[in-house]
Amino acid sequence: MMPQADPSSAPGAPGPPDSRDPPGALSPRPTLLGRLREAVIAVGALTLAALRWPAQLAAVLADTAGGVVRRVTGRSRHRRGDVLVQLHLLGNRSLGFVLITLGFLGMVMAYQACLQLSRITGDTSQIGQQFLRLVTSDLAATLTGLMLATRVGAGIAAELGSMKVTEQLDALRMSGVLPIDYLVVPRVLASMVMTVVLSVLGGLAMFAAAGLTAKLSFQVNPTVFFDASSVTFTHLAVGLVKALSYGVAVPVVAAACGLTARGSSEGVGHATTSAVIGGSFAVLTLDLIWSIAAYLAFPGRL
Q1: What are phi and psi of 217, to 5 degrees?
Q2: Domain count of the chain?
């Protein structure tokens, strides 16, 4: 007797109905209450992240200050000459970048200032003195800090983030070495020194390029433009304080981003981006704070 063929197995025949997906079934639509719940959860997650970040940054800053004290007192384990290595990496390799950037900015600012004054009064004799005061007390340090936030901050965050995701920091802790003392403190010390040095050199390049532009474009007398008699010790002190604070803020923010990196290469990339944004924001915030403090402490002298 010949076996009968199953009709459902014939070519083109419809398969058996799937009990998990009955015909005509629709996926449930999210209700208004469900959407509201998801929105509240998202806002809460963002709020917790915003509150957690300042605490992490403050913890890294406090640990770094403690590491500096331990290093000065000789109670920390570190490599000999590590600060000199960071001075070269953070300072020497950033010199050309800072000089070229600030030089071009000085040329643009001097050209625009001379152009506007020539249209209004025609007197450009005071441009050099006022521009030098501004460069000394603010522009040199702030622009240098922003440049270092993009280059140095990104490098520190990428390096520490890679070590975090590959568990190299855990290996240091198991060896009895504090990652803050071994990795962060040398970079902070080198950044403080080189931010001041680069601010001075960048300010000189900016002022020289501005004077050259004023001479070639508007025939401003170089003797009048390069008159530094209006610059006082107050301008130098304010610029120095700003440069030192930027030298601390940029590596600390970058280290905090790198030490909190998670996942793999994607987490390192996110930490690098956060370091650049956070470092730039820290520089601008400190610039505003120190400018207001200087204005209130030295009225009429800036």
Answers
A1: -95, -35
A2: 1
